[in-house]
Amino acid sequence: MRTGVYPGTFDPITLGHMDIIRRGAKLVDRLVIGVTTNPSKSPMFSVEERIEMVRREVDGEAGHIDVVPFDSLLMTFAERQGASVIVRGLRAVADFEYEYQMAGMNQQLNDRIETVFLMADVSLQPIASRLVKEIAIYGGDIGKFVTPAVAQDVVARVERLGRKGD
């Protein structure tokens, strides 16, 4: 059984993430979505909330998809999952530079696990979780970037935190 890992913070999960999940699930027998913390980011949602959000969004998608939290090196997590593939989405050239460097470092850590890059659908390339949150914080409509359920989650959180620009 070929297992792939698609890691990310998914804060929140976007339509771009969902595109990569659907396409990545076709490449492997089992796709593990690894939901992680990232010390360089300030998450809007806790890891538990993001896991629940991702599980809800992938429910009913084709393929064997698991959602698992992790707080370790990606390659350590991938090894524990029995993965032979890391799935990464690319939106722009700037993504490629970072991802290329990460793939090289990961290969040095474990050369038995390949990194596969999937280009985001052209219509979804500008979407970034960071920008979705920023738009929501300033009262903009995020409905083009996330599912209705995720939009509702984000708007509710922004209202709880107190929206800027009011």
Automatic annotation (TrEMBL):
Taken from the UniProt entry, a GO cellular component term is:
cytoplasm
Biological process (GO) annotations held by this record are:
coenzyme A biosynthetic process
Q: Which reaction does this enzyme catalyse, per its entry?
A: (R)-4'-phosphopantetheine + ATP + H(+) = 3'-dephospho-CoA + diphosphate
Q: Name one Pfam family in it.
A: CTP_transf_like
Record's keyword terms, sorted: ATP-binding, Coenzyme A biosynthesis, Cytoplasm, Magnesium, Nucleotide-binding, Nucleotidyltransferase, Transferase
Keyword Nucleotidyltransferase belongs to the record: yes
List residues of the Cytidyltransferase-like domain. Answer: 5-134
| Binding-site list for ATP | 9-10, 17, 89-91, 99, 124-130
Record-level Gene Ontology MF annotations:
ATP binding; pantetheine-phosphate adenylyltransferase activity
Major localisation: cytoplasm
Q: Does the keyword Cytoplasm apply?
A: yes
SUPFAM superfamilies registered for this protein in UniProt = Nucleotidylyl transferase
The pathway to which it is assigned is:
Cofactor biosynthesis; coenzyme A biosynthesis; CoA from (R)-pantothenate: step 4/5
Q: Which residues bind substrate?
A: 9, 41, 74, 88
Q: Where is this site: Transition state stabilizer?
A: 17
Q: What Enzyme Commission number does this protein have?
A: 2.7.7.3
Protein location? Cytoplasm
Required co-factor(s) are:
Mg(2+)
Family according to the record? Belongs to the bacterial CoaD family.
User: What's its job?
Assistant: Reversibly transfers an adenylyl group from ATP to 4'-phosphopantetheine, yielding dephospho-CoA (dPCoA) and pyrophosphate.
- List the NCBIfam families: coaD_prev_kdtB, cyt_tran_rel
Q: How does it assemble?
A: Homohexamer.
Task: Output this protein's name.
Answer: Phosphopantetheine adenylyltransferase
Species of provenance: Sphingomonas horti
Question: Which gene name belongs to this protein?
Answer: coaD
